[in-house]
Amino acid sequence: MGYELEAPMSTFYNLPAAGAEVVLHTHLVVREDAHLLFGFGSEPERALFRELIKVSGVGPRIALAILSGAGVAEFQRSIENQDHTALVRIPGIGRKTAERLVIEMRDRLRGLGEGFSTGGTVTPGVPAQTEAFSALVALGYKPPEIVRLLKSVDPQITATEEIIRHALRTAAAS
Hints:
Elements lengths: L8 H5 L11 E6 L4 E6 L2 H10 L7 H10 L1 H10 L3 H5 L6 H17 L14 H13 L4 H9 L8 H14 L1
Antiparallel strand pairs: 1-2
């Protein structure tokens, strides 16, 4: 039996090769018309997702977009610094939603306690990798191949354009 699940890009990038065992932290959303399963590579991602969907106007799709566009540590920094503009840059987040997130999530992040340490849970350059992923999809590459190509990129490369160039060179060489 198999299950379809949705995951943020940060989880997607850290998946092992096809056929390898993977452990994901899941959250099931039961709606009248569907049961939606979401998977996360770390407990802090799942905990943040669960807190985000409690915010008025933020559903599972927006929460996934936030985790894909910012990651746990970057989101936490944006909330702590009351940086609305960083949140507005995430697709699907408008000015009013960003302001609501800053107000409502400030106390919720503190309420998650010490176990919500974000150190090391975010891959450097994930927002750039997310943009590169989207660009490679637009070029016609399939998601599993894109993941393989992006894993071949040196983690020191953080510019979206350079990530795409390196991934395309790798694709041409194989």
